Input
Amino acid sequence: MSSFLYGLGRAAFRRRLAVLLSWVAALVLLGGVATAVSGAFDENFTLPGTESQTALDSLGRTFPQVSGTSAQVIVVAPPGASVRDAGIRSAIEEGVRGYGRIDQVDSATSPFDKLVSGVIAADNEAAIIAVQLNVDSAEIEPSTLDALQRETAALQSSIPGSTVSVGGEAFSNNTPHFSIVEVLGVVIALVVLFLTLGSLRAAGMPLLTALMGVAITMVLIFGATGLTTVSSTTPMLALMLGLAVGIDYALFILSRHRDQLGAGMDPEESAAQAVATAGSAVVFAGLTVMIALCGLAVARIPFLTTMGVAAALGVAIAVAIALTLLPALLGFAGAKLRPRASRRPAALLKRTRTPSARVRRVTAVKAPRMTLGRRWVRAVTRRPVITIVVVVAVLGALAYPAKDLRIALPDNGAADPGTPGRVTYDLVSDHFGEGYNGPLIVSATIVGSNDPVGVMNGIADEIRDLPGVASVPLATPNQGADTGIVQVIPTTGPDSAQTKALVLQIRSMQDHFREVYGVPVAVTGFTAIAIDVSDRLGKALLPFGILVVGLSLLLLTMVFRSIAVPLKATLGYLLSVGASFGATALVFERGWFADVFNVHQTGPVISFLPILLMGVLFGLAMDYEVFLVSRMREDFVHSGDARAAVESGFVASSKVVVAAAVIMFAVFGAFVPQGEGPIKTIAFGLAVGVFVDAFIVRMILVPAVLALLGRSAWWLPGWIDRRLPSFDVEGEALAHQVSLANWPTPDDDHLVYAEGLQVRSDSGAVSSSLNIFVKPREVLVVQGPAGAGKTALLLTLAGRMRIMAEVRGEPRQRSASAKIAGLVLPEQASRVRRRTAFVDCAEPMDLPAELRAVLAQRPSLIFVDHADLINTDADRGALASLLDEVTFGSEKRAVVLAVPDHAVLADLIPGAYSYLTLGPVADLTEARTG
Output
C-alpha cells in the first residue's frame, strides 16, 4: 500500500492543476445533477418485515383514508368557556369544513362527529380536530402546511381568547438547518490548526480539503433524496463526520510533510513520502470508520442503512481528497510550507547505501528535550498499574448510568419549543393526556365476516377494557367492509414502557380475536412502528457490538502484528463507548446539566443512537490508536527498546493526535447547543466519546499498558503472522524502497540486481548468500537438483512470491535486497509482475504459441521454469528462437531459465551465458557456448 500511495502522492504533486480542476469539476457536475433529481427528506421510519409495517402497507391499499399522514388541531376554549358552547362549536364546525377544502387533505373529522369519541376533554375545555392527508409526509407540499396554519389562525380569530394549534405527524418533518454555532466549530478548528502547524497557509489546507469533501458529500445526499428515502438526520451526520475526519486526515499527512520539510527534504519527495506513510494510516483509519458505518446494516432498517452508507461515503471522499487534493495543494505551496527553523539537523537524517550495506538510522547522541508530552508520558508510565486501575475505575463509574438508557424514535415532544408540532404536542398532553400524541391503530381483515360493524365494535369493547387504554375514539370498517380499524389511545406517552406493554398485550390477544371473531388483527401506526424499530435496534446492538469488536481485533492485529495491542485497544474502545452512553443518559434522560446543553426535554434518546455511536466511535478510536501506536511500533522496530519506544513514539505523535482530537471535539460539540433533538444527542455522545477516547484512553491508558507489557506487547505467534496481510502503516517497506532508489548506482541498467538472497530447499537446507546480476540481452540458467528451490527463486524474482523475513514482531534488519527491471522487491512486486513473464514448461501447452504471446507483451524479463522438459524439436526450436531474439534483438530483454543441469540447454543459447548452481554453496558461473 505504501508503495502505491507513494506514487499517487508524487503524481498528484506533479499534476496539481489537473487534480484541483478535476475535484472542482466533480463538485460542479454532481451539484448540477443533484439539483435536477433531488427530492425532499422523509422522516417516515419504515421497518420491512414487521407486523406494524406490513399492516400499515396493507391499510394503504384497503383503507387509504387512515394510511396517509395525519395532522392534529387542538382547540382550547377561552377561560371559563366550553368547546360545547354554541358559538365555539359553530366556529369549530366551520373550521373543519375549511380544513377539508385544503389540497392534499383527504378528510377533516369534527370532534362532535357521532362516529368518534374521546376527542373532547373531560372538562370540555379542549377538542381535537383530526385532519387526514392523502399523501406521505415526504410528499406534503409546503403550501399545504402553510394552508393548514392559515386555517388554524383563522379558526383562532373566530374564537376570541382561544388557543388553537396545528401539529401532529405532518409537522414532524424538520429539514436540516445550520446556525452560526456550527461555524464556530470550524473557527476553533482553524485556530487549533494554526497553533499546531505554526502557519496560516498550512492551517487553511485541511479546512479547504475538508470543506470540499463535505460539499461533494452534501450534493450526493441531496441528490439521493430523489432516488430513495433519506431522513433529515443523514446530511447532518455526514456533515459532522465529514468535517471532523476530513480535517484530521489532512492534518496527519500535512504534519508529517512539515516535519520532513523541516529536516531538509525536497518538497516533492516529502509530499510523496507523507502520503505513503501518514496516508497509509489514513487509509486504514478511514476503512475502519466506513466498515463500522456500513455495519449499521446489521439492524436491517432501511433509513439507518442509508444513513450509515451516506456517512461512510463522506468518509471515503475525505480519504480520497486527503490522498490526492492535499498533495496537489502541497505542490502549489512548494517550499513555502518549510518551517523557518529546522526541528533537527538535516545531517542526522541522511541515509547512505552501498550495494552490500543495510539501511541504518542515525540518531543524535544527546539528552531528549523535556517537553510537556515527554513529562506527561513519563508521569503516566511511572506507575503503570496504578494508572490503569484509576482510569478503568473512573470510566467504569461514568459508564454505570448507561444501564438505564432508554431508546425511542423522536416525536414532536422532542421538537424545538415554539414550533407548531411541539406546541400542539404540549397542549394535547395537558388537556387529554400524553397518550393522545401516540395513538395506536388495530387493523382487522374482516372480508369474510357477516357482521363487520359488530366485529369491530366487539374488538373495540375488549380493547377498551384493557389496562393502559385511555379511550377508543374510533372503531369502523372501510367502505368495502373488508378491512376495519380500531383507534386506541394509551394512557401514557408514545415512548413510555407502559405503551410498549399495551402493544405487546394487544398482540398477545391475536389468537383470541381470531378464535372469537374469526378475523386476524395487527397493531400498527407510528407509535407501534417506533416501538418495533426500537426493539429491532436493541436486539441488533449485541451482534453489531460483536462485529465491531471482532473487526477491531482483526484489523489491529494486521496493523500492529501483536496480540496484546488489539486487546488493549478494544478494551479502551469499550470504555470510551460506555462513558459516552453514561454521560448521554445523565444529561438527556436524568437532566443533569440540561440547561448548560440547552436540553428542553428529557426522556429516551433516539433509537439508533447506541448503535450509531458504537459504529462511529469505533472508527474514530481506531484513528487515534493507529496514529499514536504506529509511531511507537515504528520506533520499537528500529530500536528494540520497548519502554523507550513508548516514550519516543508518544512524544512524536501526541501533539498531532491531541490537535486532531480537539478539532473533532469542537466540530461535534458545535452541534450540541442549537442542534435538533436527534442531532443534539448524537453530537453530544460523539463529543464525549472523542474526548474520553483521545485524552483519557489513548493519552493515559495506552502508554501505561504498553509500558507495563514491555516487549511482550509486540509478540504475535508466527503461524498467525504468516496468515495475515500487512498494512505497513509504519512505512518500513517504503523506507526500504526509497533507500534503494539509486542502488546500486543512479544510472544502473541491470534487469536483475540482487544481493543476499537465500533459497530454502524442500529438505529445509538453506543456500549460502546469493548475488545475482543480469543485464539486458543476457541469459541466466539456474541449475540444481529437484527440490533445490529453483522454482521458488524464479517466482520470487518475477514478483510472484514474496521475499520472507525469518523473524516477526522483533526489530530486524533486511539481509536481502533485490531490484527487478529497476523496481524494488517486495514493495513493487505488482509492477514487477507487469514487466515480467513466467512460463512453466511443466504445464501442458502449445509452447511456440505461448512464447509468441509472451514476446507480444514486450516484457523486460522472461522466466522459463522446467526448461529441461522441452524435448520436441518444435518446442526446442521455439525456445532457441526466443533466446536468439533476446540476445540479438532490438528490445532490451533478458531470460532466466531453470533446469537440473545447464548443459541440456547449452546448444540452444547463442553466445555467452551465466549459470547459477543452487545448493549449500551457491555458485554463479559464466559460460560460453560454441
Residues 342-365, 805-814 have pLDDT under 50 and may be disordered. The chain has 27 helices and 20 strands. The radius of gyration is 36 Å.
